[in-house]
Each structure stands twice: as structure tokens, then as C-alpha cells.
Amino acid sequence: MNVVHELNKIFGRIYKTKLILIEDAFKIEELTNYTMEKLLTDARSHRAKRYIFQPSGIEVNFYTGREKEYLILPNVWYCSCMSQYPSNMMKRRVCYHLLVYMICDALGLIDNYNVEDEYFQLIMQELK
Ligand SMILES: [Zn+2]
């Protein structure tokens, strides 16, 4: 069973209905070993944000962690913490930041910011 495939189906359902069914909540916990309580607490605490650069329209997604910002590429299920902790990838664990981000995306809880293109370099440098 492919965990990401399963999760994509669940998040697709949440996105459409803006509801988390109890069986989907159990499934998320089973697939990821994280509790929904913790995931939802972080989902509501404005950690997922999206910069929309103007006028280019480029969108860059971030997760604000306790110590730093992580770059999120939701289409390929990538979080920049994975390059810092490659063992997570080896163990095929799904990154916690990505999960919270996906929940925020599905429920419409991402904070969007319009930013001038000239700040692109500056913002990307904060990731280091
Ligand atoms: Zn991460």
C-alpha cells in the first residue's frame, strides 16, 4: 500500500467537503503515527503560508517550524526538512510539516501573502 496515494485520496475528500470524517481521521493516524489532535492544533496555528509573488504569480509554500521555515512542494510531497533528516525518507515516514500543510490546504487554512518579485531572493535565503 502506498501511503502517499492513500493520503492524497483522503485529503482530496477533505478538500471537497471541508469536513474530516472520523474514519479518515483514524486512517490518517494509522498511516502516519501522528495524532489528529496534534495535527489539527498545528493546522489552526497559522504555520502554513503561501507567498504569491507579483507580478510573476510564482507561488512558494512554507511551513513555519519551531526553529525555522521549511519549503514545501506539495505536488511531490517534499518538505525541505527531508534533506536535513534523510533517515525520515529512508524509513518512508511522511514529514509532519507536510501533513499539517496538506490539512491546511484541504481546509483553506493557509495564510496567503502577496509579495513583490524583488523580495524573492531575500525570502528564499531565509530558508538556509
Ligand atoms: Zn518537514
Give the tags:
128 residues, alpha+beta, five-stranded mixed sheet, 7 helices, 5 strands, binds zinc ion
Structure, explained:
The chain is of the alpha+beta class. The protein has one domain. Helix content is 48%, strand content 20%. The protein is built from seven helices and five strands. Strands 4-3-2-1-5 form a five-stranded mixed β-sheet. The protein starts with a helix and ends with a helix. The mean pLDDT is 91. The structure holds zinc ion (ZN).
Number of strands: 5
The proportion of residues in beta strands is: 15-25%
Oligomer: single chain
Arithmetic mean of pLDDT: 91
**Radius of gyration, CA atoms, in whole angstroms:** 15 Å
User: First CA to last CA: what distance?
Assistant: 35 Å
| Proportion of residues in helical segments | 40-55%
Please state the structural category.
alpha+beta
Low-confidence stretches: none
The coarse silhouette is globular
Placed side by side, the strands forming the largest sheet appear as 4-3-2-1-5
- The number of helical elements comes to 7
Number of domains: 1
Order of helices and strands: HHHEEEEHHHEH
Bound molecules: zinc ion
Largest pleated sheet: 5 strands, mixed
Element layout with pairings:
Layout: H1 3-17, H2 22-32, H3 36-43, E1 48-54, E2 59-64, E3 69-73, E4 78-79, H4 81-84, H5 86-90, H6 96-107, E5 111-116, H7 120-125
Helix pairs in contact: 1-2, 1-6, 3-6
The chain binds zinc ion.
